[in-house]
Specification:
The complex is a heterodimer of chains A (about 110) and B (about 120). By secondary structure, chain A is mainly β. Chain A is built from no helices and 9 strands. In chain A, strand 3 and strand 4 form a beta hairpin. The relative contact order of chain A is 0.34. Chain B has about 120 residues and is mainly beta. The model of chain B has no long low-confidence stretch (mean pLDDT about 90). The chains are: A mainly beta (about 110), B mainly beta (about 120).
Chain lengths: ~110, ~120
């Protein structure tokens, strides 16, 4: 699995967009970018994933650069409840019926300030 | 649905004691996982089970055993607890139903274990 690099911490004002970068310069062609987050004292929660196209769901948007060496998770209107550690994970998609061994780094601690 | 449940929520053990952490899911998921998270660190995979009756080692299996009792339940046992096993333990589960889409892992609330 490709190695990822994320800033240790970031701050964002409530109501503003939070842009969380992730560097994955050694990503392979068949590896996806996954984002999970972990709110304090809770288990991680899946946010979004993508291969090469930009993706959007009800929680966030994922922008992947054309060379796929980096990506940005965007929370369009951050709230206090978005304060959490955000993990960027790069790996091949699990095979149908197969298990998935996620590798969590230290992630980015996002603090949303009032 | 309760999702993924874990018991107990907190536990304090003395070195050498044994205990079993329980995990259950009511989502009919095939795969189940046990992770540990040390302070300031990401999660590390201990063991996983792709289906009922199968288990495999993850990144840090030493000192642990697991049992996939049935499709719902996946337990983690510490036979002789050590201070190095002080951690927060998370259980997760995942379906394999969605063929052309990502089946995300769903995590439980965690068990906070202290070994003195």
């Amino acid at each position: 699995d490709a190695k990822t690099t994320q800033p240790t911490s970031m701050d964002c004002a409530e109501g503003r967009a939070a842009n969380l970068p992730c560097n994955h310069s050694t990503i392979s062609g068949n590896e996806y970018v996954y984002w999970y987050r972990q709110i304090h004292s809770q288990g991680p929660q899946y946010i979004i994933h993508g291969l090469k196209n930009n993706e959007t769901n009800e929680m966030a948007s994922l922008i992947i650069t054309e060379d796929r060496k980096s990506s940005t998770l965007i929370l369009p209107h951050a709230t206090l409840r978005d304060t959490a550690v955000y993990y960027c994970i790069v790996r091949v998609a699990p095979t149908q019926g197969g298990s998935e061994k996620l590798v969590f780094g230290k992630g980015t601690k996002l603090t949303v300030n009032p | 649905n309760a999702g993924v449940t874990q018991t107990p929520k907190f536990q304090v053990l003395k070195t050498g004691q044994s205990m079993t952490l329980q995990c259950a899911q009511d989502m009919n998921h095939n795969s189940m996982y046990w992770y540990r998270q040390d302070p300031g660190m990401g999660l590390r995979l201990i063991y996983y089970s792709a289906s009922e009756g199968t288990t495999d080692k993850g990144e840090v299996p030493n000192g642990y055993n697991v049992s996939r009792l049935n499709k719902r339940e996946f337990s983690l046992r510490l036979e002789s607890a050590a201070p190095s096993q002080t951690s927060v333990y998370f259980c997760a589960s995942k379906t394999d139903e969605k063929v052309a889409s990502y089946n995300e892992q769903f995590f439980g609330p965690g068990t906070r274990l202290t070994v003195l």
